[in-house]
Amino acid sequence: MEEDIQLYIDTAEESMQGAIEHFKKDASRIRSGKATPAMFDGVKVDYYGSQTAIAQVANVKAQDGRTLIIAPWEKGMLQLIEQAIFQANMGVTPQNDGEIIRIVLPMLTEERRKELIKQVSTLVENAKVSIRNARRDVMNEIKKAVKDGYPEDAGKTKEGIVQNLTNKYSSLVDKLMQSKEDAIMKI
């Protein structure tokens, strides 16, 4: 029974780590005033009938702090990539010169920065909900084990371990949010 409970705790910790990784991935797509190729990770382009990430049909690189260059491997993809960027409604205008697509990111206004912080806050809340759900699931398993004969003192100890994990990952999400917020508000 001890091994089963430890397995539940390990699974919960993996779920909490997954929530952190998911948050990092989603937060990297939110523009913080600096041009990063990760901004286009979620943008898909129609590549011979299947929806494919831009990074799989072109080189995406930052030329400088505010300019991204997208160089497709096939010239026929220029129009499709340009359309996909427009449809993604990212607030940028791609400039197609027949060879590459250049994207110059406008300076963020104070209003836009606040909107981006709201988006990050939503991601933070989603990550925390995932962490709390993992905690709830393992706590239920521990309580079920105590009902089935697992020592109550040992169950309380395990619940304390789970709560410490929850606190650790929740505070990590808060730190990640603070660093993202600082990056967004930096002029």
TrEMBL record:
Q: Indicate the segments forming the Ribosome recycling factor domain, all copies.
A: 23-185
Q: Where in the cell is it found?
A: Cytoplasm
An example Pfam family from this entry, by short name, is RRF
Set out the biological process GO terms recorded for this chain's protein.
translational termination
Its primary localisation, in coarse terms, equals cytoplasm
- Cellular component per GO, a single term: cytoplasm
**Alphabetically ordered keywords of this record:** Cytoplasm, Protein biosynthesis
Keyword Phosphoprotein: yes or no?
no
Quote one Gene Ontology molecular function term: ribosomal large subunit binding
Q: Source organism's superkingdom?
A: Bacteria
- Which InterPro entries has this protein been placed in? Ribosome_recyc_fac, Ribosome_recyc_fac_dom, RRF_sf
**Per the record's keyword annotation, is RNA-binding included, yes or no?**
no
Tell me the protein family, please: Belongs to the RRF family.
Q: What does this protein do?
A: Responsible for the release of ribosomes from messenger RNA at the termination of protein biosynthesis. May increase the efficiency of translation by recycling ribosomes from one round of translation to another.
- Which HAMAP family does the entry mention? RRF (MF_00040)
What is the name attached to this protein's record?
Answer: Ribosome-recycling factor
